[in-house]
Amino acid sequence: MSAPEFVTIKAMEDAYQLKTYAKHELALEQGEGNYVFDSTGRRYLDFYGGHCVTTTGHCHPRVVAAIRNQAEKLIFYSNVVYSSIRAEAARAIIMLAPEGMTQVFFCNSGTEANETAIKAARKYTGRTTIIAMNDGFHGRTYGSMSATGFAKYRIFPPNLPGIRFADFGKLASVQEQYLEAGGDVGAVMLEPIQSMAGVRIAEPAYYRQLREFCDANGVLLVFDEVQTGFARTGANFFAQTIGITPDLITLAKGIASGVPMGAVIFSQAIAEKIGNGEHGSTFGGGPLACAAAKATAEVIAEEHLADNARELGGYLMDTLRKASIPGLVEVRGIGLLIGVEFEGDGKYMVPALLQRGILIGSSEDPHTIRLIPPLTIGRAECDQLVAALGDAATELFS
Ligand code: PLP
User: Fold this and answer.
1) Active site includes 224?
2) What is the pTM of this model?
3) Residue 194 near ligand 1, beta carbon < 6 Å
4) Which distant-in-sequence residues (6+ apart) come within 8 Å of 189 by Cβ?
5) What is the pLDDT of residues 289-308, one digit of tens each?
């Protein structure tokens, strides 16, 4: 059955859904690999992945089969019972994790994962303060929102008490906040790459210094790898690319190829301190999401998607830098989490690329667009993107 006309879909959705989102003027009805199709059947190359979600591409046959098989067997039962698919998903995630990280808590979204990390840090250390980063993003529920370093999201006071902000990339700023909190600091929590801020990466030494600082002061190091995790940066987790092990890693977005799932990976010592009944989620670790997560982890391993992210990310960044694109200031990123900064207003690039049949993302930096495609993307598709960006930039900026 074909989809209704776009105007009908738009009118109905606008009538019944709370208006909290700015939307593109299209309805997506189908997806296959690196492409999505709108209600008229028009095809778009997906360099956005619905906010960095589609790790394995749209409707990967392996993931679809896993979801279908599980749906026919058992869609849901909670953590009051054991489940073979939950056991397998938990093992698959721990197998990918840095050494020493041994247990996973399942929830349903990135914001819940970060709430979990804040609770775990306070419980483990007995300390109140969380040092988060200016321009970091952690989600929309109270704890995660309060730890989000953009004031524009913290507009429902009072926020969660005990959050302080340091400048990303500067150890001295963390030290300063630590001293001002009188040492009552449970965790330093950060997006190791600030994606929403426009794909900002710190010097490798910074992450090592943070690890040393946390160790020296009994503070937990929490990496929000909601965007950087699950092979996007060319390793299972960004932490592995810089050779450090955080105490907690939070995950969501791509870990179940689009079926809602969040997770927190715990190091052994912290896991041992969280007891029965101290945290929970009805839907966390549900069979359907676990089937999708296990299949996602398998596809990542079997199709070498971390290698693809590293190679294709490198190829795309090189090609962008070499192309003479009007107004292009900088290309930065790692793997397939890439920011492209323009002199002019980058947000005009989003509709300009959409006209050319390609979905990309904006960021909180008005000059920077984000490229976060499925990890299955190929060279020809990267070339198509570079040509379209050049064409759009010539129209907009020259
Ligand atoms: N953390 C990061 C780094 C994010 O980018 C996001 C969402 O964009 C979140 C947390 C929140 O995730 P969710 O929207 O699944 O709650």
Assistant:
1) yes
2) 0.98
3) no
4) 114, 117, 118, 121, 130, 131, 132, 133, 136, 138, 147, 222, 224
5) 999 999 999 999 999 999 99
